[in-house]
Amino acid sequence: MLLVAKAPRLRGGYVIDFWAVGSDIAEKMGLIPRLEALGYSVREVRFVDRRGRKRGGFPVAIFRRLTGDRFTSLRRTDLAAAICGALDGRADMVFGDSIAGIEQEEKNGRVRLRFDRAAPREVDLVVGADGLHSRVRGLAFGPEAGFELPLGHHVAAFELAGYRPRDELVFVSHNVPGRQVSRFTLRDNRTLFLFILRDEYLAGQTPSSDRERKSALENAFADAGWECPEILGALREASGDLYFDRVSQIRMDRWARGRAVLVGDAAACVSLLAGEGTGLAMAEAYVLAGELHRNAGDYAAAFARYQALMMPFLLRKQRAAARFASTFAPRTAFGIGFRDLVTRLLGIPSVANFFIGQSVRDDIELPDYRF
Hints:
The chain has helices spanning 20-28, 32-38, 61-66, 76-87, 135-141, 210-221, 228-237, 265-268, 277-294, 299-324, 333-344, 349-360, and strands at 2-5, 15-18, 44-48, 54-59, 72-75, 92-95, 99-105, 110-115, 121-123, 126-128, 148-161, 170-176, 179-185, 190-198, 243-250, 256-257, 260-262. The chain is of the alpha+beta class. The protein has two domains: 2-50 and 57-147 and 249-333 and 347-360, FAD/NAD(P)-binding domain; 151-247, D-Amino Acid Oxidase, Chain A, domain 2. The strands form five sheets. It has a seven-stranded mixed sheet, with helices on both faces. The protein has a three-stranded antiparallel sheet with strand order 7-8-9. It has a three-stranded mixed sheet with strand order 10-17-16. Strand 8 (110-115) and strand 9 (121-123) form a beta hairpin. Helix 6 runs antiparallel to helix 7.
C-alpha cells in the first residue's frame, strides 16, 4: 500500500469535531485513548458582542449527550499522525509529493501513476483522499467546477503564540452582519483564529496571495469591534501559514471510475462549517476497505457497494450542512440576535433535539467487517 501526501510533514491543521460515526472506526483501530489524549474537551461555545459581553452560546455537553459521549475536538493532523502510527510500517508513505498523472491500463489491469517528484510506478487501485480540491478527482473525473457547490462563504484561519486573553476550552465568537471572527486556545500557549465571511464582503475579488488575503480580511473586519484590531494586527505580522478558502460542497453522482475511487472531501465534502468531515471520511474509508475485503478483489463490485451504502447518508449530511451554514454569519443584526437567542435555549433538551439533533446524530449502522 502506497500513501502519498502533499504536505511535507504532518503539521498544522485546525480544530475539528469528531463525532460518533468517526469514533466507531477509531475504536476498531484502537485509537480512542490516543485521540482522547490529543483532543480538546471543549466546555462552551460563547457568542459575545463588540464589548466582549456574552450574548449567546451553549455548553458543548449538548453534543456529548446527542452523540452518546462520543465527541471530542482535535487537530486533523493529530488524527492523521495517530493513524500513520497505527499502520506501524505496513504502508509505504511518501510525503511532499502529489500524483500528476493517472493512466488506467486495461490490458494488464494496472494503473500507472506519475508524480510531481518521484519516479512513476504501477498500482492496482487509486484511492483519492486528497480533500476538497482533489487532484485525483480532477485527473480521473474532470474539472472541479463540474462538482463543486459553493455555499456563499469564505473561511480563513491562522495560529499565533502568546495571544491574550485566553479562555481555556471555550470557543469564543463575535459576529457583525455577514461576518464572524472566533478564537480558541490551543496547547503550548497558542491560539487559533477563525474568520468566516459571506462572499459579498470580498468585493467580488478572490485574493490569490497571502498579502492579498490578509488585506481582504482587514478590509472585511476593520469595523467589527471586539478584539478585531488586535487580531488583525497579529495577522498582519504573522509569518506562519494562513488558511484561506471558499466554503463548498462536492456533489457527485458516482465516486468511482475504473480503478480510481474517491473518499472523504474528495468525494462528498460536506463543507468545513459542518465540523465532521474527517470523521465521515474515516467511515467512508472503513466501508471501502471492508467491501474490498468482502468482495475478494472484485474492485468494481466493492466500489458499487461502497457507494450504495454511503452516498445516501452523505447526501443527507450535505443537505443539513447547507442549511446550517447560514447560522455562522447571519446577514443581519436581527439574524445574529435570533441565533444568539436560540443558542441560549439549547440547554433545554427538547430545543437542542429540534434544532441540532438531526444533524448531529448519525443515522447509519456501519457493517461489521471481519478482517
